Amino acid sequence: MRTKILHSIMIFILMVTIAMPNKNFVQKASADTSDLKVAGTILHLREGPGLSYPIITTLEEGDPLSSIGREGDWIQVKTGNYEGWVASWLTAPTNAKQALDKTVIAQVDRLNIRTEPDISSAVLGQLSTGNQANLIEENSEWAKIDWNGQTGWVSKDYVTINDNPKKETEPKEDAVEVTTTTTPVNKDTTFTILVDVLNVRKKPDLNTKKVGTVTKGQAFKVMAQEHNWVQIQYNDKKTGWVYSFYGTFSNKVKSTSKTSSSKELESVTIIYNGTNLRTDASTDAEVVERVDAGINYPIVGVKNDFYEIQLDDEKTAFVANWVVTTSSNKATIPQKDKEEPRKKGTLNGLTIVVDAGHGGNDHGTTGQRGTEEKGITLKTATLLASKLSAAGANVVMTRESDEYVALRKRVSIAHQYEADAFISLHYDATDDSSINGFTSYYMNSNQKGLAEAIHDGLSGKLELRDRGTQQGNYLVLRENRQKAVLIELGFLSNSSEERVITTAKFREQATLGIYQGILNYFNKQEE
């Protein structure tokens, strides 16, 4: 009997042991669930989603994290025996992709770099026109980039993506980059402060000693970068670290051209693939070469709206100023050529201001499907500008990125440039979601002819309901001395129409119609 009882006890203990989870197995399973890792040198785990919450513990680069929730740009995670919140911009996926062998070149100024591929996510920094970054990955609308050690997303609508050129030789110093967390940078890179006052610290850490302050607008030579920190040279060649979110990077390009001028010449950076280099300062001149975005050339001189640039083989060529950015990134005012008469069928000698409606904190209307007016007006304006420029016009855009421009400033730009035409682009909305169609507006009598010509051009290209040409008491028309037209290219408040007018095909047809209308109007003026 006793033997039977002992046997039963042994069987029971064995079954319990089998049923109990193995501690090592549980830890391993838990470790396998980590989907993030610490990307910064240090990362504070906090009690809540924000910098104001107390610090639970400090994590180090590479520590595994398991995400369990999210609130805005903060992620709730588990790590070891702790649970708390971390800033998403200081983490990376455990399966993070390496940079591709491609370069992203910004086509507009102040292009936002965001934490996520979403216009509502936080802005990490900005690219200037012509800035180049390494491509990490891309989807249909966004590109993930590495910009001077900073990782984020930019809209593909405002960049050119090229394969990296093959290098004949690689500097030996590249081999040691993997052994340090500090990233060397181009010796000509500068960092410009974008906030009123920014602390300079001894090390790339908010907890280290403050060694000084810098102020908005100051630019400093960049010595190195470590994740979201940048080391700058300031105050009699002292160095210190500042948070890179509060400034912007730029690169100075030195001219190699020979000139008798004592003033150092600027250089240009090509911002569009397939840009034509010509034998003379005219769109009718012979094309000597087609080049891609990202290439730099020293400026030798300026003629009309073209830069004369120095080629590698000591020859020179001309490139239009609307397809490049200069090293100083200063806006240039195109001078109208009054001496050479315009040829019929071209827009040579004409200055046209293209106004992308809304921008910045002025979102315009929002469609039923979530489309923001400010975004598609800019896309449409950029496409129209390229067509007008190709026809020989001097094109001035009231904005080239997501920025707020006051209405009166838009009008003053037309006056400043003595514009031959001012075209303001918008998309409509109303409380009645059944209303649809496109409309062209004018206010003053000298604007009516241009409005009618543009509307005729649109009616031949668009399949939307034609709402005609009407008088509209809009400030950009009412206060404008120049020939000005405001175009509403369909209703975002109509979900069916929104689906049509937000496509690339529609923008192509609409801008083609506007271009044709402008061309027809000025051709008639020559008769």
TrEMBL record:
EC primary class: hydrolase
InterPro entries: MurNAc-LAA_cat, N-acetylmuramoyl-L-ala_amidase, N-acetylmuramoyl_amidase_3, SH3-like_bac-type
The SH3b domain, residue ranges: 31-95, 99-163, 188-251, 265-327
One MF annotation (Gene Ontology) recorded for this entry: N-acetylmuramoyl-L-alanine amidase activity
EC number: 3.5.1.28
Keyword vocabulary terms for this entry: Cell wall biogenesis/degradation, Hydrolase
Name of this protein: N-acetylmuramoyl-L-alanine amidase
Organism: Lysinibacillus irui
